[in-house]
Amino acid sequence: MSKAPRARRALIPTVAAFVCAGVIAIAEAQPPDFTGVYETYRAPQGQGQGRASGFGGPRAGLPLTEEGKRRVEEYGVLAGPTRLNGATFCADYGVPTMMTLPGAYPIEFIQKPNQLTIIYEVNNETRRIYIGDRQVEPEKRLPSRAGYSAGHWEGKVLVVKTTDLVDAQDQTGNPYSDQATIDERFSLEEANGKKVLTYQATITDPVYYTAPVTLPERKYQLYDGFIIPYGCQDEIWSELLDLRRDQLKAGKPVDARMSDVYKVREARE
């Protein structure tokens, strides 16, 4: 009997094992797919996360610089006793707030190899995270409340750096400047039979904070639902704040209303 067929038969298990190992290695190397619609994660035995906003809602002990303290105090006066906030007047939440609020309203992730698109149902606010080498040239990036987000994979974790923000404040008055950067981490796991997304973020801002600020970790679970159209605009909110800021500087009562914004608009026409 020829030794060749016997040798070939001996190689079959080895080749099969090699192929199987290769398939497993490729599967392990594949990044997770975040695609889906998410709502706030409901932990077992009622261990809820609570409601968050921007830096995790009003927080005592934030490491504010003197300018940061002044900005928070000014915003408190501008907001007045009714505690105005941008969401009431359709202003975009921006980053990180839109990432920490989903609960009553869901958030959708749409993933492709070089981009993760995130849509929050409120105002259908959208952000895009560009992954890998496909990036907008720095000189062509437009500052906004959402900033510019560049991501890369570290194993199965999507690591994102957000820059190009505008000087603004979150829904509870915590400020962030145009020099701020936000470092974010997105990961997936299975919990209680559901696909669970974990979001982590740290904000570094030399203008308003003396040290980096880490947000409370947020978890969201995949659910079988949809987001619906929800349109709004934030221009009138900015104009109202400008009117109140002018009143504050002039030593007048800070009580401008939306009707005053419309009067100013009519006068310009």
Question: What do the pLDDT scores average to?
Answer: 84
Structural category is alpha+beta
Helical region count? 5
**CA(first)-CA(last) distance:** 100 Å
Query: Strand order of the main beta sheet, please?
Result: 1-2-3-4-5-6-9-10-12
Given as residue ranges, the uncertain stretches (5+ residues, pLDDT < 50) are 15-27
- How helix-rich are the residues, as a percent range? 25-40%
| Structural shape | globular
Q: Helices and strands, in N-to-C order?
A: HEHHEEEEEEEEEEEHH
Number of strands: 12
Q: Please give the domain count.
A: 2
Largest β sheet strand count, sense and barrel closure: 9 strands, mixed, barrel
Rg from Cα: 24 Å
What percent strand? 25-35%
Main traits of this protein?
globular, 2 domains, alpha+beta, 12 strands, 269 residues, single chain, two-stranded antiparallel sheet, 26% helix, nine-stranded mixed β-barrel
Furnish the topology, listing elements before pairings.
Blueprint: H1 3-29, E1 36-40, H2 66-79, H3 97-100, E2 107-112, E3 115-120, E4 125-131, E5 148-154, E6 157-163, E7 168-169, E8 175-176, E9 181-191, E10 194-204, E11 213-214, E12 218-222, H4 235-249, H5 258-268
Parallel strand pairs: 4-5
Antiparallel strand pairs: 1-2, 1-12, 2-3, 3-4, 5-6, 6-9, 7-8, 9-10, 10-11, 10-12
